[in-house]
Structure of Beta sliding clamp:
Amino acid sequence: MELSFNREAMTEALQRIVGAAEKRLTMPILGNVRVRPDDTGGMRLETTDLELAWSAHAAGNIPAECDTTVSVRKLLDVVKAAPGESEIRASLDAERMSVGFGGSRFSLATLPGADFPDWEAGGIVAAVDVPQNRLRRLLEATMFSMAQQDVRYYLQGLLLVATGHTLRAVATDGHRLALAEIELDQAVDNRIERIVPRKAVAELKRNLTDDDQAVRIGFAEDQMVFELGSAILRSKVIEGRFPDYERVIPADLPATLVVEREVLKRALARVSIVASDKYRGVRMVLGPAGCQVMTHNADREEAQEAVEASYDGPEMEIGFNLGYLQDVLNVIETDSVRIGLRDGNSSILIQAEPPGGARYVVMPMRL
């Protein structure tokens, strides 16, 4: 059985879908890519780890009866090793795929395509189209606040909320919260919410471009479906009740600090030199003179920075996780940021200046 495909087209398709392949290989076939004919001509390539699945099209010649699987990472490495714009030929014989170009030949083990998990999404209850660049920005503005490891499994994902003409993304790890939203061209009839797992969010973001080509987002009963042209990402959703994030966002904050984003970023970067590796705490002292940031460590080393800022509240000291503040400043795009405060023991609200767009809540820490 003979196959042929272009190096560039196959490399692009395999690089898109490789992230869904299982690395631990609890089942050997989960480290493979399924190769079979596409309904529209060419090849259909599929990978999955049973929680997440990629499907992508690649141009090529493939027999109608072909249905096999081969290690996706090995096939990708072989294809990338071929000279640019090469036409690569492959043949299937018993339990092997032979791949060749120029004077190079590779023999890779295969498993039957019929044994590959067949996962199709169904029951789409709502779908919206979003430009890739806007969706990418939405993810970048929020995904850093997802929990890394937490027994509250629903925090290890990103909440997507579609309602009316708005698509909202919310992430929290219990100590900080990020909320951003974009406008939809078409309205969603009913409010719909799904928690997308961390790996699916990372895979989606990795494959989004900075152009305005549309992504179709499908909300199914227990899945999310993202269509990027001829490629489709499917993900199971996290079951559970996401925290009532709207109650977490503080309102009517009496004190306001307005500071240039880069100035504060550089100040935090400098004091981080002596910050404790374990606690990463920084103290902000606010008063008529503006803002000072300071930190110390177990060796009694200290760092202090005076930050030029506008502050209109009472004198106050408040401590934060240094990394949490830096993460927010890295995703806000305006020259200045506005920080709303109540007292030294309450959460703060960070926004762009002038206010608008994403909102970030950071809880204080005792130092």
In short: The two ends are 68 Å apart (CA to CA). Residues 276 and 298 are 7 Å apart (CA to CA).
